[in-house]
Design goal:
Helix content: 25-40%
Number of helices: 3
Order of helices and strands: EHEHEHE
Length: 107
């Protein structure tokens, strides 16, 4: 980390597998969330070996907004390993894990 760079308060870790159809909506919503937080934030997008263009769409978000980071696993290791990869890269004081598919939890 550069001397002038401030460590984020929040790290949003988002594993994804074959989510090309939702990445643009996901990154738009994550941008809005990070803008509304009371501290600096980063979003770590973890491609869990997708066979579509999920990773390429993640890279577009990285190019648009420096708060996004993307990592690509060499193959599909599964949801938990993808989360672990994101946790390993997280720099925030608080880490929030989110699913990429934008579905709400059952109530």
């Amino acid at each position: 980390m550069a001397a002038a760079e401030v460590a984020p308060t929040y790290s949003l870790v988002v594993p994804a597998f074959n989510e090309e159809g939702i990445v643009d909506e996901l990154t738009g919503r994550l941008t809005a969330v990070m803008d509304a937080l009371d501290g600096a934030a980063e979003a770590i997008l973890v491609d869990d070996g997708s066979r579509d263009v999920t990773y390429e769409k993640m890279l577009e978000a990285v190019r648009r907004d420096g708060r996004f980071r993307a990592v690509r696993l060499s193959r599909n290791f599964g949801h938990q390993i993808a989360i672990t990869a994101g946790l390993d890269l997280a720099r925030g004081d608080a880490v929030i894990v989110l699913d990429a598919d934008l579905q709400r939890a059952a109530r």
